[in-house]
Amino acid sequence: MTDQASGRPRADDLSCDVCGHLPRPTKTRLTLANVAAMLPIELAVHAIVVRSELSYVAKVLVLTLAATVLVIWVAEPSAMRLLRRWLHAPALKQRGRLSAAPALWRLRTVISDEPGALQAVTAELSRLGANILDLHVHPVPDGAVDELVVATTETVSSEDLLAAVSAGGGVDTRVWPTTALALADSQTKALSLSVRVAADPSELPLAVAELLRADIVTDRLSAPHPGRSVPGDGTVMKIPSPWHGAFMFSRPGEPFTPAESARAHRLAELAEQAELSAALRERSGAATRQRPAAPGGRS
Description:
Blueprint: H1 27-50, H2 56-82, H3 84-87, H4 89-100, E1 103-112, H5 117-127, E2 131-140, E3 143-152, H6 158-167, E4 171-177, H7 181-184, H8 186-199, H9 204-212, E5 215-216, E6 236-240, E7 246-250, H10 258-290
Antiparallel strand pairs: 1-3, 1-4, 2-3, 5-7, 6-7
Helix pairs in contact: 1-2, 5-6, 8-9, 8-10, 9-10
């Protein structure tokens, strides 16, 4: 939905379809909003208390109680309500860009591990008039798998995008149409990645890397030696593979949170269940084909 008068997206459009809550604003914007909401009221309370006939101790107690009540019951609720659009301005700006895009595409291509390789691909997309909205780079041996989300005009087709990426040096390129909702909020993005993993369990490592904005550790030199534990700074995470061993992900300088670890392991469980279900269906189909027909034409 958008504002009928201005055509801009509304803050309510960012609410989660499941719980109805808005995404958490950035800490800086939330702090500034709380100060803006609380400062005028607190100054007024200070002026009233200071000019009163109360004792010094009573004034301190009243001011402490008033500040506590203001923070809990007045400041943050008022800031979230009155300054809601400003608090969520970055997310609303992204939603507006996505909503205005005539066509959205997701691209995946493999580029060489050479300086300027990604720039060559983006230059070809720019000549086509494609606007890159999102980019994820997953290192692989001798190169990188790049996943991009681009906005184009309605006249640009998937064949045009494939040709542009190939001209820029990309190989093994694939293109899919995508939607604005998959990029607008993290909940929908997680659900979209879950659908991808359920449909194709081999998508697990790329899906986890995209969800957590992490690198897939594929270079044995950068991976912990067998038998050694994962570094304790929280920047490396291992999740079980549905096939063998484990996948390892790295995010230098930004440790993984317990919630992120839980999401990654849930995706791994989903991939394992999808793999098992596919194997059971295949075995059931094979058993049905091999079952001899009963006398009288019955199966």
